[in-house]
User: Fold this.
Amino acid sequence: MRILGIDPGTAITGYAILDSINGQLIVRDLGCITTPKTATQSEKLEEISTSLTELLTLWKPQQASVEKLFFAKNVTTAVTVAQARGVILQTLQSNNIPHNEYLPKEIKATVCGDGSADKKAIQKMVQLLCNLRSAPQIDDAADALAAAICHAQHLTIHTLAHA
Assistant:
C-alpha cells in the first residue's frame, strides 16, 4: 500500500510517500511544499494544490493520511492552516485518493506510544520504524511521515481484525 502523509501548513506543508508492504515501511520520498513569504494567501493555496497534484501524479498513492487541525492559540494561524487543509482535502478528493485524518495526539500515540511526544521523539521513532540512516531534520516532513506511519498501522490493525 502506498500512502501519502501530509502535515498541512500555509508556509510549509510536509509530505511523505511511504510504502507499507507486509509490515515493512519503505520511505520513497520525503519533503516539504514551501510557499513564498511574499505570496498572497490565494497564491500560497494555489501552490499547495499544484505541488500536491504533481506529487499525486508522480507517486500515485493509494491512500492519504492528513494531520487534523488542533486548537491553536493564534486564531490567525489556525484559520490559514485550516484553509491549507481545505485545499489539500479538496485536491485529494478531486484525484480520487481516499484519505483519513488523525489528530496530532493520535499520530504521536500510534508512532511513539505517547500522545504528548515531542518533535525529537517523533523524529527518532520514524527513523527507527522506517530504518532510516538518520532522523528527518525538518519537523514538517517528519510529522508527515509520522502521519503516514500512523495510517499504515491503523490499516494493519483493521486488516488483522477482519482476517
